[in-house]
Amino acid sequence: MAESKAITPRAVDFSAWYNDLIMRAELADYSPVRGCMVIRPNGYAIWEQMQQALDRMFKDTGHQNAYFPLFIPQSFLAKEAQHVEGFAPETAVVTHGGGKELEEPLVVRPTSETIIYAMYAKWIQSYRDLPVLINQWANVVRWELRTRLFLRTTEFLWQEGHTAHATEAEAEAETLLILNLYRTFMEEWMAMPVITGPKTDSERFAGALRTYGCEALMQDNKALQAGTSHNLGQNFAKAFDVQFQTAEGGLDYVWSTSWGVSTRLVGGLIMTHGDDKGMVCPPRLAQWQVVIIPIWRTDEERAQVVEAAESMMKELRGAGIRTTTDKREIKPGAKYYEWESRGTPFRLELGPRDLAQQSVMLARRLGGKEAVPMAGLAARLLQEMTAMQQAMLDAARARRDAATLRNPKSKEEFIAFLEGNGGFVFAGFCGDPAVEAEIKARTKATIRCLPDPEFRSPEAPTTCIWTGRPATVEAVWARAY
RNA sequence: CGGGGCGUGGCGCAGUCCGGUAGCGCGUCCGCUUUGGGAGCGGAAGGUCCCGGGUUCAAAUCCCGGCGCCCCGACCA
Does at least one atom of strand B sit less than 7 Å from the CB of A4? Predict the structure, then answer.
């Protein structure tokens, strides 16, 4: 019986653990449609917290939200050669509407560049119209062959920013601004450390000049691309004829960017912090940061304890702490397991004994349980939340660093690491795409990014780990989701 | 698209080889006793056995043909 309720341990089968956890915590469920998932309230609440934090950050940096249609004329996709090549194989296409065949099929957006640039062409005439800084929260559809809850589903939710600028430098600055914004969000809200840097050509967004990414390492030592920011150059501007009159009186194409993060982040959160008891949610993203569990035997006790719980909840909410009370008629132990599996950061157990002592039992999701006085409880919890948020980031960073190999001595060590427990490998690379492909074929590892300066090794590698030729860059390899 | 597995109450499965009354666990509902780490006992509800065809007195079971899902590989936020 206990076994049927248990989550498969990570060490036994990481994939099974991941699926079990999502089902137990009721984050999502499979839908009747192949490859699509239903995001349940517990999972959606996390996404909403993410949305709120990111949306604030976007707005604080001058961006505005807008909404563009779900359907894109099929011909639009074809206007940018690389873009159509990249996305056409995985689009869903609507051929009929209202019982009639459409004159032109409509693609369900896999991403919105094309329809957005068609509009920008109308809206932008002068350098005075620039920059355009727009974001949209939307769903997109990509007909993936293999899907996994949150990580890769046929339909997913995301935000996509699309900006247009007067100069290449401005576009590059915007691309990096967002990359850094994503990094801040991932580290400070998700407590998920990332490595940032440009992608190689093989991993570049279809139609972009350059793609930058945030790469996180999951507990099974596989990398997760958590977010990308693209400098599109003038590629889409030229394809959609988005021109403007410059301050100097000339005519130029706009320089543009696009960037996005998706509900995949929820999967990243799970695989970064989850344990064998279930989800562990960082306080800043938790739907409920604190759950109060009233404990009683008699109806009389129940009345007293519930009343105390409600006044405690009111006080904590007043202090800005997202608090709920679980008053259901089931045994307290059952509630503990349930809230733990959902990752709720703190649990307050409140029974007659506690009332008598004017204290409450504080149980942390990361471990540890102690009686704390009711007086000053809110301040104490605020402290606890800050500490937990930091502890989670520190722990995740320590795990990642422990699974990172820098400057392997030989090609053999490089291969053995990737084929063993895996993780990030920092090593020299000659820059040859054929070598990159060969490494992928041999090890299943790809270059996650060319790390930004702060992530690079103290001593720059001098030779390519694969060919022994002079290294042009340091690269980070890993097997990835 | 190649390889493997599986479709039986809400969920997980047994039963299929060898045809003969539809079964178990969990969950759900009701009652009583419980309640500080997943409660116990008693009672109850709930099934076109994936679909279609065939063989047979009789099919979850045998035969033929479909469909769907999951896992492993090539593409991907």
Answer: yes
Per-residue burial over A5-24, b = 16 or more CB atoms within 10 Å of its CB, e = otherwise: eebbebeeebeebbbbbbbb
Same domain, A156 and A232: yes
Distance A276 CA to B47 C1' (A): 35
* Pair (A141, A175) in one structural domain: yes
Could you tell me the CATH number of the domain that includes residue A232? 3.30.930.10
Say whether the CB atom of A443 is under 7 angstroms from strand B: no
User: Residues A62, A76: contact at Cβ < 8 Å?
Assistant: no
Q: Note whether A57 and A203 are same-domain residues.
A: yes
ipTM associated with this complex = 0.83
| Same domain assignment for residues A325 and A413 | no
A368 Cβ nearer than 7 Å to chain B strand: no
> CA-to-C1' distance for A16 and B28, Å?
26
A157 and A259 inside one domain:
yes
Range of the domain at A107: 2-273
In a domain, A391, yes or no: no
From the CA of A276 to the C1' of B46: give the distance in Å: 33
- The answer to whether strand B lies under 7 Å from the CB of residue A6 is yes
Establish whether the CB of A96 is closer than 7 Å to any nucleic acid atom in strand B: no
Q: What is the Cα A457 distance to its own chain's centre? A: 26
- Find out whether A124 and A147 touch, Cβ atoms under 8 Å: no
Q: What is the pLDDT of residues A283-326, one digit of tens each?
A: 999 999 999 999 999 989 999 999 999 999 999 999 999 999 99
Encode pLDDT of A243-272 as tens digits: 999 999 999 999 999 999 999 999 999 999
Burial class (CB in 10 A: 0-12, 13-18, 19+), A356: exposed
A283 lies in some domain: no
Q: Return positions of chain B under 7 A from a protein CB.
A: 1, 25-26, 34-40, 68-77
> Which pLDDT band, with edges at 50, 70 and 90, does A451 fall under?
very high
